[in-house]
């Protein structure tokens, strides 16, 4: 990762801004059946805003990169960014376009089920990012959702350019990684410094790219410095080369796991930017993910003091 990261201090978050439309139910209905909705509400969501909000909680300036429609959902996103003091420099309104949304069904056990409508948030253009911001970017977070766009090749070219300028790249494959074009996926992995999948996504990566040997060895051969595997309530497993690290999950009273993986990734980005050891990075990332599950909605309000208390066991 670039040696001039001490000068660079901005984070670009590539992934798209959407609305999460929540339905809280006692249990998910069987096919063809009906259940009562206990509560419903909306939140600005998507990996992009979850990562950006967590980084803001930690004092890091993060720029969501996304287009949004000029429809009511897009207006909600615009108002939210302004109220939350999240930079809007790279979030542009596209006239006549619809904003994407996700139906999030959460049952009594906090299990989530998603149904997503893709809007204009997947449309990427380098015009979204001004040259001065390119020059001061230390880190790029990229979610696999963004690579489902028709112009995914432009995203890869952009990531290649900004990495050449000295930025580090974190790639979160996402649950739809198997739908990403194989050559695009392979190119992004080759540009990634840090890979943050869960175990299911690793299996999908193996299948999509026909990886038959040891996955960690394969990833290391691609130039990936860190593979950090999210295991949910079982904790996290990380690899750097042949070295392996294990960290159990922090015990919290979870009410909604939406966005926990994104918040984990943001916490890790913070740790890398601070130049911390991998063990400390994993603790901060895990604490961010755990704390976020204690809120209803994808991006909770917590800070460094809360993280320190959780890590200490207070």
From TrEMBL:
<dbReference type="InterPro" id="IPR029056">
    <property type="entry name" value="Ribokinase-like"/>
</dbReference>
<keyword id="KW-0472">Membrane</keyword>
<dbReference type="InterPro" id="IPR002139">
    <property type="entry name" value="Ribo/fructo_kinase"/>
</dbReference>
<keyword id="KW-0808">Transferase</keyword>
<dbReference type="GO" id="GO:0006796">
    <property type="term" value="P:phosphate-containing compound metabolic process"/>
</dbReference>
<feature type="domain" description="Carbohydrate kinase PfkB">
    <location>
        <begin position="9"/>
        <end position="296"/>
    </location>
</feature>
<feature type="transmembrane region" description="Helical">
    <location>
        <begin position="176"/>
        <end position="196"/>
    </location>
</feature>
<feature type="transmembrane region" description="Helical">
    <location>
        <begin position="124"/>
        <end position="148"/>
    </location>
</feature>
<protein>
    <submittedName>
        <fullName>Acarbose 7(IV)-phosphotransferase</fullName>
        <ecNumber>2.7.1.187</ecNumber>
    </submittedName>
</protein>
<dbReference type="GO" id="GO:0016301">
    <property type="term" value="F:kinase activity"/>
</dbReference>
<keyword id="KW-1133">Transmembrane helix</keyword>
<keyword id="KW-0812">Transmembrane</keyword>
<dbReference type="Pfam" id="PF00294">
    <property type="entry name" value="PfkB"/>
</dbReference>
<dbReference type="InterPro" id="IPR011611">
    <property type="entry name" value="PfkB_dom"/>
</dbReference>
<keyword id="KW-0418">Kinase</keyword>
